[in-house]
Design a protein that fits this description.
Layout (H helix, E strand, L loop, with lengths): L1 H12 L7 H63 L4 H6 L14 H14 L1
Length: 122
């Protein structure tokens, strides 16, 4: 019964054994080369499409970055105007303080005491 079952399964599945391995190897090699011939153009096309979509994404990202940069510059400019600064860039570079001052002449007695203390310490 076991042999009958094997024969039945082989006929139902359509499996046929080939006596020569050379014919099977030749057909596998042909199928493999046909697969390569089909896959090479597909991979080249996918590479070209990948470069195209990367360039498009990079362009969109660059436009968005420039837009955000201009927006932040505009907000900084408006904030500086509301505070009352005329040119915010030049105020950052200034290192002077404006205000009133009075020149005080040196006291003679204080300078003489400094000289005496300096001489006593030595």
């Amino acid at each position: 019964m076991n042999e009958d079952w094997k024969i039945l399964v082989k006929k139902a599945s359509g499996f046929k054994e080939k006596n020569s391995n050379e014919g099977m190897n030749a057909s596998l090699a042909t199928k493999r080369w046909m697969t390569y011939l089909v896959l090479i153009p597909i991979l080249i096309l996918l590479g070209i499409l990948g470069v195209f979509f990367f360039a498009a994404f990079l362009a969109i990202f660059t436009i968005a970055a420039v837009g955000f940069g201009i927006r932040f510059w505009w907000l900084k400019r408006e904030l500086a105007k509301s505070v009352g600064l005329e040119d915010p860039i030049s105020t950052v570079e200034k290192e002077t303080v404006e205000g009133e001052y009075v020149v005080v002449d040196g006291d003679e007695q204080a300078s003489q005491e400094k000289v005496r203390k300096g001489g006593a310490d030595n």
